[in-house]
Specification:
This protein has 135 residues and is of the alpha/beta class. The strands form 2 sheets. Strands 1-4-3-2 form a 4-stranded mixed sheet, with helices on one face. A hairpin with a 3-residue loop joins β2 and β3.
Length: 135
């Protein structure tokens, strides 16, 4: 049986603002927009390399794990962060911050040999890891 990642999903406060941010920060483009029962709005976004993120806007959604740093997120069961690979870690980090991301960890060595990592918070405070070649 073949298994591979399909997408990651996040519930956000403002679907339009989040779509715009993921486009500005990382180049994600709308692939599909939809409405589900009970007024849930959604969108599937896709990067040029095929990574996909699904965003949901749900009235009355409760606050989740937001504005955490990596060690705090690891101490919470469930969603911790989403990670995106890039061939230009510093460029991706700078683009995210210039688009309004809050920097969490500047680029630094990753525990995985040969790679570097950085973390930012998206507009909603979700933890986003960027993974790239060793600096």
């Amino acid at each position: 049986m073949k298994m591979e990642p399909h997408h990651v999903a996040l519930t956000v406060l403002d679907l339009d603002a989040s779509q715009s941010w993921y486009a500005r920060a990382f180049g994600f483009e709308p692939q599909l927009e939809f409405t589900l029962p009970d007024g849930v709005r959604g969108a599937m976004l896709r990067s040029a390399t095929g990574a996909r993120i699904e965003l949901f806007e749900v009235a009355g959604a409760g606050e989740g794990l937001t504005h955490a740093d990596p060690p705090t997120a690891m101490r919470t069961r469930g969603y911790g962060h989403v990670g995106f690979a890039t061939d230009d870690l510093q460029g991706a980090f700078d683009a995210a911050v210039n688009a309004g991301a809050a920097p969490v960890w500047d680029p630094r060595p990753s525990p995985e040999p040969g790679l570097s990592m950085a973390f930012v918070h998206d507009l909603e405070g979700n933890l986003v890891e960027l993974i790239g070649p060793e600096r």
